[in-house]
């Protein structure tokens, strides 16, 4: 799936000279947390909730001590003043907007949002705004994927064979000692010895993701936990 498959196509936008009160009202009325700023066909910025947190009206504008103002450069101080007192979209917006193409895989978008700590990204097609992908769009895509991979009817023997084969593909899986798997009517019982709670959880998650599995009963023994419980002589 790519950006075009999950994006919101009808993007609400504002112009650089849109009054800030109209921007805020637009965001509230449409229940959105960010709005791109367009100059003709170009995305020149974006106004987000974060851009509106430090405002003189809220008493939350940046405050620096007199000493810090003396040693700070004038340009950043002036920029802070504009952002906390500005009355137009262009005066408070975040510039140098991060964008993606409509062919960008959703996995790359998820990594981008996480790495840049942003909640949405405009989508371009041939250099023009075509949509926007937010974290909510990604969650809807995840829900679709989860539903699409819901357990199907697979016989018990195939579940057991597939699970054991999958475990052998992973180094941590091969380290599970004395592993025994039984499957009856889609219910998987796991028996064996693991060497950490993380390994125990990984085996269980792998079993839960096997097609046809309806429930997992975890009887795995964590030897590290057992060792910690042994009293000292």
Give the secondary structure arrangement, pairings included.
Layout lengths: L2 H4 L13 H11 L3 E6 L2 E7 L17 H6 L2 H12 L3 H4 L7 E2 L4 H11 L3 E6 L2 E7 H14 L7 H13 L2 H4 L2 E8 L2 E8 L2 H12 L6 E4 L2 E2 H7 L4
Parallel strand pairs: 3-4, 7-8, 7-9
Antiparallel strand pairs: 1-2, 4-5, 6-7
Give the distance, in angstroms, between the N- and C-terminal Cα atoms. 59 Å
Strand segment tally: 9
Judged by helices, strands and strand pairing, the structural class is alpha/beta
> What coarse outline follows from CA principal-axis ratios?
elongated
Q: Which fold does the CATH topology of the largest domain refer to?
A: CBS-domain
The radius of gyration over CA amounts to 27 Å
SS field, number of helical segments: 11
Assigned CATH superfamily of the largest domain: CBS-domain
Order of helices and strands: HHEEHHHEHEEHHHEEHEEH
Question: Assembly type of the shown chains?
Answer: single chain
Biggest β-sheet strands, sense, barrel: 4 strands, mixed
Beta-strand percent range? 15-25%
Number of domains: 2
């Amino acid at each position: 799936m790519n950006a075009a498959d999950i994006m919101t196509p009808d993007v609400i936008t504002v112009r650089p000279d849109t009054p800030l009160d109209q921007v805020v009202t637009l965001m509230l009325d449409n229940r959105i947390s960010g709005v791109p700023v367009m100059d003709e066909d170009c995305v020149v910025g974006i106004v987000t909730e974060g851009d509106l947190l430090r405002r003189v009206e809220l008493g939350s504008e940046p405050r620096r001590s007199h000493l810090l103002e003396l040693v700070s450069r004038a340009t950043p101080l002036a920029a802070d003043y504009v952002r906390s007192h500005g009355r137009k979209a262009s005066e408070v917006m975040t510039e140098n907007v991060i964008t993606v193409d409509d062919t960008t895989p959703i996995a790359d978008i998820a990594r981008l949002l996480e790495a840049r700590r942003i909640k949405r990204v405009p989508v371009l097609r041939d250099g023009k705004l075509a949509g926007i992908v937010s974290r909510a769009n990604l969650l809807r895509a995840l829900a679709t994927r989860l539903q699409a991979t819901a357990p199907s009817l697979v016989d018990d023997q195939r579940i057991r064979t597939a699970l054991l084969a999958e475990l052998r593909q992973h180094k941590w899986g091969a380290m599970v000692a004395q592993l025994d798997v039984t499957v009856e009517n889609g219910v998987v019982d796991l028996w064996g010895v693991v060497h950490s709670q993380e390994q125990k959880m990984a085996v269980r998650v792998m079993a839960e993701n096997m097609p046809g599995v309806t429930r997992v009963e975890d009887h795995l023994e964590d030897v590290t936990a057992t060792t910690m419980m042994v009293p000292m002589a």
